[in-house]
Design goal:
single chain; mainly alpha; two-stranded antiparallel ribbon; two-stranded antiparallel sheet; 4 strands
Length: 470
């Protein structure tokens, strides 16, 4: 009954309804709605009720714990993926693209040096703490397979990743994405992932035989020094092409202002940047998406128009699916006493490492305690990058698969705590958005929270669509 394409459509409907209801409930209690999205994913996925043989997104058959939204596909022997993964990936790409569109280049230049130092501290401190807390568990032999120091270092490497998507979503909800601290956070998170990927490549190269099966270009990219070269090359290519794209879109914006072709081509640019970043240069796709947004942000009118179009799609479907997927992919099976203790220590140092490292940099830069706390908390969220790093270590044989649950728990706790703490640190104040919209009957001023903003977008979209060329 729930097999096939329509089965997934039904699962998607359940995801959309549950995330909206839980999001509204979260806002009712003064919490960010993204927290409700994650909780919704846990409730409808296999994490809790799946252990009892029940799930709102359904099973295939009576005795097979396979969920219709989680059916796996594989192309040419590459990593398996699900339809839910596709929607989730589009969601995080659109989220980062939107953040890039709202970036102010001048503010980015002002916070660039500070963001770099914050990112370095956000990588170094958690990595050191992770390696240190691993020592008693590694030496005791409780966790099988740990015999080398490099394995403890890899545990620390898992803690270096930062998931900027949750932080970006909360900053946008609070109206803080364009503030100095907001720009610093987004920039630092992007740089954090770049540094983390270099560290991952170095540690993996030291812990394995060095990609014995890889040849040619793939062998080059698998070496730690090759990774560094490719990262530098990516930013060089992205900036060079970005200059050309700036003038192209600037010309198009003057010739065809507020037309559908602009956001369509802008979104296509985002997808191309994301693909080239990860598949060719080995840089995270979200970094490519963010840079694409930054490039388009230099064309102010087009960036604002494109951002409104992108926001509707992401708010309606892809964004909620991304956050729900975090909860849906949770798995609390296979836990043991010692592993729970190790996981608890892992989660604690994972959270505190970012707060201490990143917050200290802000304080040393004469920032307030509140700004230090916001920066540290904003950098402590973990997501898909941490899962990727963990999976790389398992595939390379450096760490056992049992440790995946530690990363899952870290993602769960950081995903829940980050939105709550950020809102508390910002004072719980959501800046009302007021916009004067010119209509055929005159000017109308709209203001308010989430629903009102959506209405503003709808009014502006309807007004613009009447003047758009096809």
């Amino acid at each position: 009954m729930f097999d096939g394409v329509l089965g997934f459509v039904m699962a998607l409907a359940i995801v959309m309804i549950s995330t909206k209801l839980c999001g509204m409930l979260a806002r009712y209690f003064g919490l960010p709605q993204v927290l409700g999205y994650i909780v919704a994913g846990i409730l409808i996925g296999p994490a809790l009720f799946g252990l009892l043989g029940f799930s709102l997104i359904g099973f295939h058959g009576s005795d097979v714990a396979s969920f219709i939204a989680l059916d796996e596909f594989s192309l040419d022997g590459h990593d398996n993926f699900t339809v839910l993964d596709v929607f989730s990936k589009i969601g995080v790409i659109l989220m980062m693209f939107s953040a890039g569109l709202e970036t102010n280049i001048d503010d980015l230049k002002k916070t660039g040096a500070l963001a770099t130092v914050v990112a370095v501290a956000g990588v170094a401190i958690p990595m050191i703490l992770g390696a240190v807390i691993s020592i008693p568990f590694l030496s005791s032999g409780v966790i099988g397979g740990f015999t080398e120091v490099i394995q403890g270092v890899f545990v620390g490497t898992i803690l270096t990743a930062t998931s900027v998507a949750i932080t970006v979503s909360v900053l946008k909800e609070l109206g803080k994405i364009n503030t100095r601290i907001g720009t610093t956070l987004v920039s630092a998170a992007i740089i954090d992932d770049v540094i983390g990927m270099v560290v991952l490549s170095v540690v993996t190269s030291l812990g394995t035989t060095g990609a014995a099966d890889a040849t040619g270009f793939e062998w080059f990219k698998s070496q730690w020094w090759g990774t560094i070269i490719m990262i530098i090359a990516f930013f060089a290519v992205a900036i060079a092409s970005g200059i050309g794209l700036h003038f192209l879109f600037q010309w198009m914006d003057k010739k065809w202002p507020n037309t559908h072709r602009l956001p369509i081509l802008g979104l296509a640019t985002c997808f191309v940047y994301s693909f080239i970043a990860e598949e060719i240069f080995g840089v995270a796709d979200i970094t490519g998406a963010y840079l694409a947004g930054v490039v388009l942000s230099t064309v102010n009118r087009m960036a604002a128009y494109t951002g409104r179009k992108i926001e509707v799609n992401n708010y309606m479907i892809f964004g909620p699916v991304f956050f729900a997927a975090i909860g849906i992919n949770m798995n609390f099976g296979g836990l043991s006493g010692w592993l729970i203790l190790f996981a608890a220590a892992f989660v604690v140092v994972g959270l505190l490492g970012k707060i201490i490292g990143c917050g200290a940099v802000i304080r040393l830069n004469k920032g307030t305690w509140r700004e230090a706390g916001i920066t540290g908390v904003g950098m402590m969220a973990r997501g898909e990058v941490a899962l990727i790093v963990t999976n790389k270590g398992i595939e390379a044989g450096i760490i056992p698969s049992d440790l995946m649950i530690m990363t899952v728990l870290l993602i769960l706790f950081s995903s829940i705590m980050t939105p709550i703490l950020l809102k508390k640190l910002f004072g719980g104040h959501v800046e009302p958005k007021t916009l004067s919209v010119e209509t055929e009957s005159g000017n109308a001023e709209l203001s308010g929270g989430e629903e009102s903003v959506t209405n503003v977008d709808a009014v502006k979209a309807a007004t613009e669509d009447r003047a758009e060329n096809k």
